[in-house]
Each structure stands twice: as C-alpha cells, then as structure tokens.
Amino acid sequence: MQIRRANTILYCSRWQETVAFYEAGLQLPVLMRKDWFVEFRLADGAALSVADQSRASINSAGGQGITISLAVADTAVLHEQLLQTGLQPGPMRQSWGRDAFFICDPEGNRLEFWS
Length: 115
Hints:
The structure is a single chain. The protein is α/β, with parallel strands linked by helices. It has a single domain (6-114), classed as 2,3-Dihydroxybiphenyl 1,2-Dioxygenase, domain 1 (Roll). The chain contains two helices and eight strands, in the order βαββββαβββ. The protein has helices spanning 15-25, 75-84; strands spanning 6-12, 30-33, 37-43, 46-52, 67-71, 93-95, 98-104, 110-114. The strands form two sheets. Strands 1-4-3-2 form a four-stranded mixed sheet. A hairpin with a 3-residue loop joins strand 2 and strand 3. The longest helix is centred in the N-terminal third of the chain and has 11 residues, at 15-25. The radius of gyration is 14 Å and the shape is globular. The model has no long low-confidence stretch (mean pLDDT 95). Residues 4-115 form the VOC domain. InterPro entries: Glyas_Bleomycin-R_OHBP_Dase, Glyas_Fos-R_dOase_dom, VOC_core.
C-alpha cells in the first residue's frame, strides 16, 4: 500500500458553526467547498473535511473519542493567535515532553496542537 494523501472527515450536526471555526477561527485554507462539505488544507498531503450530517449517510459522533493531533512550529505563538481571534484554547502544558494545548470545535472534536 502506498498512501499519497490523507483526509479526515468530520460529520457534524453543527455544520455551519464548525465550518466557521476551521475557516475563520483557525484560518485553514479551503481546498474545496460544496453546499454541505468543506475540505481544508492541513499540510502537504493532509486535509480535514467537515460534512453536514443531514446531507450525509453518516451521523456526527458528537466529538466523542476523537482527538486530532497537529504538530505546529510554535505552540505559544499559535495559542496567542487563537486567543486574539476570540477562540478559547485550553492552557499551555507539557504533554509527552512537549509543549501542547487543546481546543474543541463546535461539534466537540478535540484538537491538540503541539511542538
């Protein structure tokens, strides 16, 4: 098997709020937009999509049991940027010997940012 691209799809009941969180709050670039599905670029070969569960065959998991872990260049800088945009990231802490913090999207999915 040779995987060339990875995409995580989150099925959401709070679709519009969740799209706004990733687009306006986290300022992720949009790769594709449909009336019920938006794909965001995370990195080369990696994407995160948000789908409206009312238009899909899969329902929201309500964020239960999901953590999306993302390595970034500087967690302290990102943490401050998110605070400035009005988002409410959790406190900076040490996790597995690295600087990290968590934030949840409107659907309840947990994102971990670390460096």
